[in-house]
Amino acid sequence: MSEFSEALQQDEFVVTGEIGPPKGTNLEHCMEEVNELRDSVKAVNVTDLQSAVMRVGSLATCRVLKDRGVEPIYQLVCRDRNRLALQSDLLSASALGIENVLCLTGDHTLLGDHSDAQPVFDLESVGLLQAVETLCSGEDMAGNELDGSPELFPGAVVTPGADPVEPQIMRMEKKVEAGARFFQTQAVFDLDQFSGFMNRVEHLDVPVLGGILLLKSAGMAKFLNGNISGVQVPQRLIDRLDADKEKAKSGETAVKIAAQTIRGMRDLCDGVHIMALGWGGLVPQIVDEAGLS
Amino acid sequence: MLVTELKPEDELLAEVDEDGKVFVLGCDGCAGACETGGAENLPRLIDLLEEAGKTVTGRKSVEFLCDKSLIRSTLRPYASSIMESDSVLVATCGIGVQCVADSVLRRARPACNTLNMGGSRGTWPGTERCAECGDCLLDKTGGICPITTCAKQMVNGPCGGTTEDGKCEVDDERECGWYRIYRRLQDLEALEQMQELVPPKEYGRYLPSYERMTGEFWAVDAPAEEAGDDE
Asked: In this structure, is residue B89 part of a structural domain?
């Protein structure tokens, strides 16, 4: 049983962090970031070729984290592997002692740095969750018996800010039916909207960790609004970032905004997932200011 | 030419399970040539439905179901019997089913699977596309194909990449297929269909056999085998 899953079961307000493996074999910066945030979080997500950009693999990086005593959450996307490779990697993860797995469909190859690649999408996240469940029951997807079955704790993602949100909720219900045991959400900035979403998914008895994305500048916030579906940064936050460029640059404003959002989330959901995008060093301060340490 | 075969009877009956009244529609084009959709092929579908206790409200075979103007003009006299039906069972390729779905506000249910011919395609005047996947899902998606309209070929609803105006994350001109499916199912008052967990697709049905790719019946332009070739 992973510590992360136990914490969720014990109704702790759980904090998770996230790192992105590098492009190239130098893991030094990545591990520095892990060291900065490791004591503030229960587990650390490792992204899987995030944004369809080729990098070091999630599975290898998860194992490196585990060797250093940090509990990883293995992100696995369906874009680059068919069902043979996905199932094989899930068995590999288990063989390497990795239990938490976040099942994603993945950004399309056209959005990444190898846009000529053949996208796979043999399965999508719902099918991947079903595959996890099947493997854990001792069989593969073709019904063949396994010699030793994995013990995995599968989770999934949801976009609370989608408009319309109903198709997202229906998909979330299917993910629960397919075996999702926790959710981490897309970045949330509007607590009223998030609160409405949580009310609508109250019937789902699965813990939800609200997504916290550090706002590095007003420009970044505007970029999110223009380019990332289901993410809306309210104008008042953009104005705050604009008002004091020094504080925005140093991360002071990002910390304040994140801590306020987390305080607002404490009664709404079961934890938070902090996406620091390289600013992992600020995570302890955020957790502290949010009153969680 | 798009090649079709009738779905197995149990699959067909599962589609119309909750329907009392069904209108049966065929296509005299490719489906006629495949002996799945022409006028003379409809009686066996009708027999199957009636044996299962369904009321068949009418039947019609249209010259080409991939031509929406032809569908609309041909079906106009049948409008009342179609609208009193719970669904329209359409014996044709995936394109024809989608054209019917876009033309009548009734569940258009596919009677056939469209088989992959290794690259051959018919021509059609509309925007509907069929991947010839051999495992037709149109019954579950309001008659809009998620395999050809969704960039990720998702079968269980939209990813998180739909924009607020219903476009796809890979191209802001491109409509999100699942947004369209959601709207269509809303119009059909059949949104509960989106709650059904769809299992991973059977891509093993995608590849055509060599015989099918090269066989004389399907490859109409292949030179006829001459007697004595083998000697």
From this structure: yes
**Chain A environment of B170 (Cβ under 8 Å):** 108, 110-111
As for how many domains chain B has, the answer is 1
Q: Is B131 a member of any domain? A: yes
CB contact under 8 A, A124 and B162: no
Cβ-Cβ contacts under 8 Å between A and B: the total is 86
DSSP secondary structure letters along chain A: --HHHHHHHTT--EEEEEE---SSS--HHHHHHHHHHGGG-SEEEE-SSGGG---S-HHHHHHHHHHTT--EEEEEESSS--HHHHHHHHHHHHHTT--EEEEE----GGGSS-TTS----SS-HHHHHHHHHHHHTTB-TTSPBPSS----EEEEEE-TT-SS-HHHHHHHHHHHHTT---EEEEE---HHHHHHHHHHTTT--S-EEEEEE----HHHHHHHHHHSTT----HHHHHHHHH-HHHHHHTHHHHHHHHHHHHHHTTTSSEEEEE-TT-GGGHHHHHHHTT--
Q: Are A50 and A113 in contact (CB under 8 A)?
A: no
Residue B173 lies in a domain: no
Which domains are present in chain A? 3-214+269-281 (3.20.20.220)
How far is CA A17 from each of CA A70, B70, B77, B98, rounded to the nearest angstrom? 11, 58, 63, 45
Let me know if residue B158 belongs to a domain. Answer: no
Q: What is the pLDDT along chain A (293 residues), one digit of tens a residue?
A: 899 999 999 989 999 999 999 999 999 999 999 999 999 999 999 999 999 999 999 999 999 999 999 999 999 999 999 999 999 999 999 999 999 999 999 999 999 999 999 999 999 999 999 999 999 999 999 999 999 999 999 999 999 999 999 999 999 999 999 999 999 999 999 999 999 999 999 999 999 999 999 999 999 999 999 989 899 999 999 999 999 999 999 999 999 999 999 999 999 999 999 999 999 999 999 999 999 97
Global confidence as pTM? 0.88
| A16 contacts A3 by C-beta, under 8 angstroms | no
CATH number at residue B208: 3.40.50
A229 to chain B, any CB pair closer than 8 A? The answer is yes
- The nearest CA of chain B is from the CA of A167 a distance in Å of 7
List the domain range (segments joined by +) for residue B137. 3-141+197-214
* Partner-chain residue, chosen from B160, B169, B203, that has the shortest CB–CB distance to A122: B203
Which residues of chain B approach chain A closer than 8 Å at the C-beta? 151-164, 169-171, 178-179, 182, 194-195, 197-200, 203
